[in-house]
Amino acid sequence: MSEKIEAAVEKYVASWAEPDAGMRRKVIAEIWAEDAIYKNPFVEFHGRKGVEDAVQAYDLFVATKGATFKVTKVDISMDAVRYTWEMTFPGAAEPEAIGTQVVILDENGLMANDHQFIDKAPTGMEELVHVGLDV
After folding, report:
1. DSSP H or E stretch at residue 100
2. Measured between alpha carbons, how far is 6 from 57 in angstroms, rounded to an integer?
3. In this predicted model, what pLDDT tens digit does every residue of 55-93 receive, in sequence order?
């Protein structure tokens, strides 16, 4: 089971850099519960459509700045998953942003409740907070 969960986390984080919105939507439908709740420090999103709305990393960081995302650690405890990720710009020695997610899985193993913590905020995030965008 843990391999399946780790694969879902990797797939989800990879979707942040997916240019095709339809593919991002497909990934979200595969690994998120229909009634999921996604929360970052600023905004709360409901349902798969809400998760899709929250995943704006491609438009904000990949298309415009060439960012890449990678999972750096996954911990699993029963139905709880904690994972960390990094966002890096081309040529950068250090990640531009680092985050931790804490996810509760539903009885089917789908992501049901996700809390995002920003461990290192990307430059310019302050402006995004005011318009309620997820980063």
Report:
1. strand 97-105
2. 21
3. 877 888 888 899 999 999 999 999 999 999 999 999 999
